[in-house]
Description:
The complex is a heterodimer. Chain A is an all-beta fold. Chain A has strands at residues 7-12, 21-28, 51-58, 61-68, 77-83, 88-96, 101-108. Chain A contains no helices and 7 strands. Chain B is 23% helix and 39% strand. Chain B is elongated and about 90 Å long.
Amino acid sequence: MAEARKSMIKIKPKKFKVGDTVKVDFIVIHPMDTGLKKNKKTGKIKPAHFIDNITFSLDGKPFTTMKVWETVSTNPYFSVNLKVPGKGKITVDYTDNTGEKNSKSKKLKPKG
Amino acid sequence: MKRRNFIKGICAASAVAATITPSVLLAKDAPKGGNVLSYDAAVAAITGGKAVADSTKVSLTVPEIAENGAVVPVKVNVESPMTDADHVKAIHVLTTKNGNARCADVMLTPMNGKGYFATRVKLGGTQDVVALVEMSDGSFLRAAKPVKVTIGGCG
């Protein structure tokens, strides 16, 4: 089990109703190394290390899947929309090229 | 040893060194482990040879000038009703001059409600950011915008 990464799911706006379209923002703390940069202390090239697959799902049903390359910035941010069908749980699963797997989830609570 | 021969020897040695060192350095600087894919190859891989049309339905929001190429916000909005019959199938974010042209492939479903995607990408230099959108009927739409980069962020 790899070390857990810090990640965050934000739903915008904070108050929403069933049927509204909300933004689902996902941010994760990750180096996203390209495999081109050198480590300044040792002079060795840092190996490529980046997130390559992300799945957004609602109650286990995926609604957005992404393939991502090292050209995405450090500490990446991804934002997609979701039409709220009702109460549920948003889960984001992500893997990186070294085989590290993580997931983060947040409850979806529409009002009214 | 005569002075003349000594100097000749030094010159020869330095000439050899001068010719060798650049190639050695180049070999060191060559990308290791990074994916290398040109823009044209990436487009061909995505579309499979199908025609791509520039469209006003796709709106791409990028800064005109990015001071730091390591963090360039990219927003893609696609006009679409997002029903089962007519929705945005995928949004591909590409760059024209990065070593690896592909940034992100986003597969959307009607559950998304809107054809929207935002992220931040690295740009190695001044170049175009391209959004290639695949609709559910199999057609491809495209929007491109140039971004000026003052400090590159890919190396």
